[in-house]
Amino acid sequence: MAIGHPVNMSYEAEVLKALDGIGARPGDIVRMEGGRKGAEGVLMPRHEFTSKDIIVVKLKNGYNIGLRLERDSKLVLMKKGIGLPERSVPKVGMSKELPAVKLIGTGGTIASYVDYKTGAVHPALKADELVASAPELADICNIDSEVLYSILSEDMTVEYWQNIAEHAFEALKGGAAGVVIAHGTDTMAFTAAAVSFMLPGLNAPVVLTGSQRSSDRPSSDARANLLSAARLAAYGDLGEVAILMHSGSSDDSAIVHRGTRARKMHSTRRDAFRTMGGEPIGTVGEDGISLTGEHRGRGTTCPELKKDMDDAVGLVYAYPGMHEKVLGASMDGMRGIVIAGTGLGHLPSKLLPSIEKFINGGGHAVMTTQCLGGAVNLSVYSNGRALARAGVIEGTDMLPEVAWVKLMWVLGQKVSGEKVGGLMASNLAGEMSERRVLD
Amino acid sequence: MNGPRIGLEIHQQLAAGKLFCRCPSELHERVRGEFVRHLSPTLSELGDVDKAARLESEKGMSFRYQDTESSCLVEADEEPPHRPDEDAIDLALTVALMLGAEPVDEIEFMRKIVLDGSNTTGFQRTALIARGGEILVGGERVRISAVCLEEDAARRVESGGCGATFRLDRLGIPLVEVATEPDIGAPDMARDAALAIGRLLRDTGKARRGIGSVREDINISVPGGARVEIKGVQELGMISSYISGEIGRQERLIGIARVLAERVASAPSGEAADITHLLKGTGSKMVSGAIAKGGKALAIRLPGFAGALGIQKDGGKGLGTELAQRARTVGVKGLMHSDELPGYGITDDEKSAIEKELRCGPTDAFLFLVADGEKGKAAIARVTERAAEALKGVPEETRDPAPDGGSTYSRPLPGGARMYPETDVPPILVTEERLKRLRENLPKSAAVRKKELKERYPGIDEQRISIAVDEREDGLIGEILERICACGAPDPKTASVVFSAVLYTPESKALSKEELTSIFTGLAEGSFSKEAVPAVIAHYAANPGATLASALGAIGAGSVSSGEMEKIISEVVAENKDLISARGEGALAPLMGEVMKRLRGRADGKLVSEALKREMKKLV
Ligand SMILES: [Zn+2]
Questions:
Q1: pLDDT digits 0-9 by tens, A136-182
Q2: Which of B29, B93, B184, B431 fits B6 for a cystine, CB–CB 3.0-4.6 Å?
């Protein structure tokens, strides 16, 4: 991910010593003298993979080149850099007549800036910067933006989800027509599921969106996604948490996925997200919003905020010959475990005693299928029946990671032990379905 | 230096895999699918967006891209770039070494912002490989400033009002760019320098051939002028005329600026005036038509510009054309100015009315255009900007070459601000071992290769080998010569004829040893003449599995009887008595052509020529 690049851009030992010797810092103009290899230019920070005796300078023609610091090369500091001026963010004026939309920034590549001098990419840290990345937002709605975090989505935790849900809740309570959450795509589906469970009785759209090409590139999908998400939040007849991303490779149409049904199914494509086990909610294109799939419309009553979660829940992926230690470590000290089982919901038979022990000790185990399509059924094969007898809860057709988020939420609601199974088997936020049809 | 300063950038496609993915560098006509994208300028840390980049994106374009068999997720900007193609890096370094340039120690790929849609990413990946070096052009030294390796842009297949369609097959083909210092002083020398660099690039044996495989950018400035880049010249033969044209243009603009300075001309200021009411009943169909469609006529006064807009003393175009080309960038197709009025259906009275409305003095000029509201205002803003530049002389800009040898405005000259590091591509250390290996295997020059081929295949006509080396790949030449020799050519002359014919037949590589042997046997047995060889080879190439008999049947060849030959010759001579009596021996060549045409290559040219000469003598 582009944001990761500028972290370590300082030079190593030998080169650093030489640079320190003349008091040069990245951004200063330096000259290397020594035969035909001489060059004058702006000293650049190094790339993580720059070789250790190389100095990178930006020539007048804009090109960076790497030059080896040799014993006889002479380094001269020509001019101290002028330093980076304060970044000026154009203020985007909002119209009070348009529907109010809350825009929550959490990080990821949807709003980032490139330092043309160094190529370093910085995330948007201020609310204004978020809006400035797509000034056309002001034509769609009256945006109130707030940057909660600037983190990579793989670093999200339960507390972050809770904070996001709370801000969405407050915004809706305050009369916002909808909420847009700018989020890194890696774990966007996890956050969407968490917020879905935390806001029961949701009355308006809460739309998560992001970008697969960071916004420091002219071809970024960030702008199109942000604008479509704002449109959906302001005008969509939707009372659910949704994920909005490109529906194909083109910039002109976005697709709306249910927050508890979406999955990132490609590491790089713009249309990476898919609705699993059902139809997407709809599309947002140049010709407007079209919600043709089954969905909950807007409501008049306020949602509840039930944000408590118990994060002592593990998630494991079953595989042939799975070692007892792997499963054991995932359950040790935990109150719940979700297994992405093989096929109808199976684990190697030898692991049954460990599961029994965990459940007997008060733990909750939920079985899902790593097939990602279709439901779990623990009645068909003996291995499954043994798991059911041991008290493993059938996760029906919930996605493994959604079942994991849900179990944390159910346990967070402090219900009695025997009610956990019932809640896990109930459809709370569109995360499961009773019938599966041919398509 | 007192003359013009000219620099060249030669871009040559390399016959290697694509630079940042493992797709083949091949063009395709079959389109697998399409997608649509928009590009927007990115905000930089410094808050400034490159001027050229901003202008491009202001056009609000949407771009359609066509996916082909030689494009993958990388070209579609749906996957990060892979490691650069090693062959392409070797080739760029090789070119650098051949030019005597100094390679960098570590190659750093950059992103050069390009928002015209030709790159799906919105930038072109490019790296500086080496600096310095030189090439001799007619005994004069032209210094090389840089050798770069970059990815080619997507192929523009269609341009429309607010968008364009590009095909992804060409995107990512490696290009080596050789840039010279502005050491060239004359148009012809620029052409010769381009030829010399092109020859050196072809000496690598890995230069792609065909339309668009070589493109030149020409940088020109005259003393007192400014750097202007004519971008994407594909025809080498046109270089001189583009340069002469640009020198003339810059000198004219400098002259105009001098006159304007004397008149204390100032840039047009204030808003444009709406003069639609003055042109209500105009006889100009163009103007009345545009007004009828709801357009507004907007006019501005150009203080002190009288005479600067129309044709100048040297017969060249004045500022009017420059202003019109700026208006065109926002989609306004034309404008009218006072230097060309009355005319184009605008009467003297209408001209006076406009002058009165705008309060024009005797040295003032005016212009107007007809367009709908926003577009018209945008065009006036561009035109005003250009008029202000005219006071200073020549503005720096990028221009597109026109087929007539002239050029048209394209966009401002891009600045260094549009380059930033491509962090997705790790830097590449240029090792001593790599340079040593490349130095030891530097390609031989064309002259050396010609000499070697001549020594190796003494039977083949020297002239033919020479031309072949200039025009075709070495590998192909060697392969054909090897096979011809292996098939036992009956005599050197026949071998030479067959060599050329095979070399210039498309898909000639497909010709098998058996097919070649059949040609030689057929010639030796006299079943057809040497003149029919190209047709036979073309038939073989197009019809796999064809036999000599079927080939001869299909092309209607096969030796003609001497009786039939004599008959045709006497017919032709009889029909052309006048020509023969007028030109005597000189009529041989045209008559020879006519006879051979009627014989359709079925007879030996030498025999025909002798028989024809005899027949003509009878007449004289
Ligand atoms: Zn590819």
A1: 899 999 999 999 988 888 999 999 999 999 999 999 999 999 999 99
A2: B184
pLDDT digit string, tens, across residues A57-89 = 999 888 999 999 887 788 999 998 765 455 566
- Provide the residue range defining the domain that includes A371: 313-424
In chain B, domain spans = 5-260, 266-390, 447-555, 562-619
Burial class (CB in 10 A: 0-12, 13-18, 19+), B321: middle
For helices A400-412 and A417-424, the axis angle rounded to 10 degrees is 140
- Class of domain B266-390 as given by CATH: alpha beta
DSSP state of B559: P
A186 included as an active-site residue: yes
Per the annotation, the verdict on A109 as an active-site residue is yes
Q: Quick check: is A185 catalytic?
A: yes
A153 alpha carbon – ligand 1 mean position (Å):
29
What does the DSSP assignment read for A163-183?
Answer: HHHHHHHHHHHTT-SEEEEE-
CATH number at residue A25: 2.30.30.520
Residue A114 sits in the same domain as residue A221: yes
A5 Cβ under 8 Å from any chain B Cβ: yes
Together in a domain, A58 and A151: no
Give the nearest chain A residue to B41 (CA atoms).
A218
Q: Assign residue B593 a region: left if phi > 0, alpha if psi is -120 to 50, beta otherwise?
A: alpha
Indicate whether A74 and A196 sit together in one domain. Answer: no
Q: Which residues on chain B are in Cβ contact (under 8 Å) with A218?
A: 39-42, 53, 57, 113, 115, 121-123
Residues A274 and A404 grouped into a single domain: no
Q: Which residues of A touch B126 (CB under 8 A)?
A: 63
Helix axes B239-262, B373-392, angle to 10 degrees: 80
Of the candidates B40, B47, B105, which has its C-beta nearest A54's C-beta? B105
How confident is the model at residue B314, as a pLDDT?
A: 87
A269 touches chain B (CB under 8 A): yes
Residue-wise pLDDT tens digits, A412-438: 999 998 999 999 999 999 999 988 888
* ipTM score for this prediction: 0.92
